[in-house]
Give the backbone structure.
Amino acid sequence: MISSIGPQGLSNMVWSFATILVENKPLSDSISAAAMRRIHHFNAQNIGNTAWAFSKLNILDVPLMSSIASQALRKLQSWETQELVNTAWAFAKLELLHGPLMTATSAAAMRRLS
């Protein structure tokens, strides 16, 4: 069933559960697996919302967050501020340091402040 849901549906589903602070482990595991398989199809909002949701629920899913970081590094130069903030906040909340992602996010934020 999850396999038929696209990137927007996956990110919306996990975002919805995180917004009301309901963790469903089998669901989050399924969303994580599906997201990692399709991460190259995720846009900035899908990436930011998925990272935010897993962090809001305090789910430290290192393989998923690594996939998110890799995809973000490919695209974040064109992201809006909200996606940058959501993604940076997610990694900070989980106390997950990804040096290259934080360096690139900082550089993108600095360009917006100039």
